[in-house]
């Protein structure tokens, strides 16, 4: 019995089961079902490792930033936050896994019986949302059972509504309903689309912008993030000085430490 309970509380397994159900529902071949299920589990493990790495790489920056500028601050980022919450509060880790898996089943049910025919398949967004739901209910002082029960329903409703909210804009841009977008930034992006419709008539699309040949590397997300983090990290370590950085670097030269942390953050992201 403990085996099955622990199985249901393991996010990696739950997400793999979600992928398995989705692939079977799409009537994929056995080889595709097997491959997709295993890759989903591996993808979650990579995502979890990346989240942990992000926390490790950004915390020294936060500490040094506070010391240099005498300001209190914190690092944000969905993967960073939910990873930290799961590590810090075991109840959130275990309940969010069940919420993620069972909430997906509610999503399928709602897509079946309501006019909203949307099944949310963006795995890491499902994970982030399930942790956020579990955290909110946990913060409200609810028991594990209540967190799971209410969380499953909320998760299913949210997963169903988000693509539906975005679909009018998606349809406008693509000219069809061939696919939908499942992302937690939907409210912001849809609002931006309507604002853009009001104020952006006749303006040049960012897609049409042409960068000089020597700056085209900025189109590579990894390069852009690495450069930005390098600038910020080096600024902070230089202002903090070798002695302050030494408390974090374990003897590594403070400039090299800043460079490695900037690259490490990019790798984790």
From TrEMBL:
One of its GO terms (biological process) is phosphoenolpyruvate-dependent sugar phosphotransferase system. Pfam families: EIIC-GAT. Its main location: membrane. The chain crosses the membrane at residues 6-25, 45-69, 89-111, 118-140, 146-166, 223-241. GO terms for cellular component: plasma membrane. It is found in: Cell membrane. InterPro entries: Ascorbate-PTS_EIIC, PTS_sugar-sp_permease. Homodimer. The phosphoenolpyruvate-dependent sugar phosphotransferase system (sugar PTS), a major carbohydrate active transport system, catalyzes the phosphorylation of incoming sugar substrates concomitantly with their translocation across the cell membrane. The enzyme II UlaABC PTS system is involved in ascorbate transport. It is a multi-pass membrane protein. Keywords: Cell membrane, Membrane, Phosphotransferase system, Sugar transport, Transmembrane, Transmembrane helix, Transport. It comes from the Bacteria. Belongs to the UlaA family. This is Ascorbate-specific PTS system EIIC component.
